[in-house]
């Protein structure tokens, strides 16, 4: 683990460990190319082998620390462009052309991050123990195919990922910030809320209105993946499929930036799926981007000390609940990390 991600504050701001995080759309990593990404406090190299399988590793050559993302893609391995050291997909030094047979060859010298693909995105496992097997990867039900179809909307915002979580777990803002939206113009501007526990998290919902506006959000932490699900009622003019479901995952880039993945889903199949996809691309997508842009403008304009100067009320109990859940787990993980022996740094002469 990168040295700076060790305290509970680090883990809160950059993301809990022992979790799968979406890091980028699948289309960002093309065959024959090397892609550099910063995610969750880690410096990552992404590439595909000859079969198209994606691999994720540290963006650091074990020889001198040069960026492997500036190297050469060799099909089944990467060559550092500084001194030609070659590493395979398992992080093992396959060849040291400048000194054949040296002790570095055959040694696993590079951290490898387990990676999976699904629903148009690449997911990476960030583990507390670098050598432990990850939790088996499993997508949320609306992203798993079957009777569901989805479009992925990907964004990068200049604010903490925690502000996006606040926004997603705050249904009340829909009746104000998005009042002029084509789907959130109706419903009351006042509401009473309750928190309902589930086996995988909790639901925050209005007690006096349902199926009218943005009336509930669900926080889910299950199978090593965290996400928020919510429904937006859709008029019949928006085509078949019932409510418009959003599955959202957010991933810290650093303390002040994050990547957002918003899957826009409907439960459709057959001809209804074709109809929904046509309507979405030709009529609805632009409107949804407008709503998301309203959220971005609000989140990016929040001051750095916003949490310290809040005056919360009943509509904000989901925010308080989620922050406590995340802080509690961050504190637990920080205690685990504090007991780990730091990696030994070879002495220099």
Task: Describe the overall structure.
This protein folds into two domains: 26-126, 3-layer Sandwich (Rieske Iron-sulfur Protein); 141-329, Naphthalene 1,2-dioxygenase Alpha Subunit, Chain A, domain 1 (Alpha-Beta Complex), CATH 3.90.380.10. The chain has four helices and 18 strands. It has helices at residues 8-14, 161-168, 270-300, 317-339; strands spanning 19-25, 35-39, 42-48, 54-58, 72-73, 77-79, 86-88, 93-95, 112-113, 115-118, 121-126, 148-157, 193-198, 201-206, 216-222, 225-232, 244-254, 257-267. Helix 1 (8-14) crosses helix 4. The radius of gyration is 22 Å and the shape is globular. Keywords: 2Fe-2S, Iron, Iron-sulfur, Metal-binding, Oxidoreductase. It comes from Saccharopolyspora griseoalba. Residues 20-124 form the Rieske domain. InterPro entries: Cholesterol_7-desaturase, Rieske_2Fe-2S, Rieske_2Fe-2S_sf, VanA_C_cat.
- CATH-scheme architecture of the largest domain: Alpha-Beta Complex
- Low-pLDDT runs of 5+ residues are 344-349
How many domains, as an integer? 2
The arrangement of helices and strands along the chain is HEEEEEEEEEEEEHEEEEEEHH
What's this model, at a glance?
The chain is of the alpha+beta class and 349 residues long.
Features:
18 strands, alpha+beta, 7-stranded antiparallel sheet, 4 helices, 349 residues, Rieske Iron-sulfur Protein, Naphthalene 1,2-dioxygenase Alpha Subunit, Chain A, domain 1, Cholesterol_7-desaturase, iron, 20% helix, single chain, 4-stranded antiparallel sheet, VanA_C_cat, 2 domains
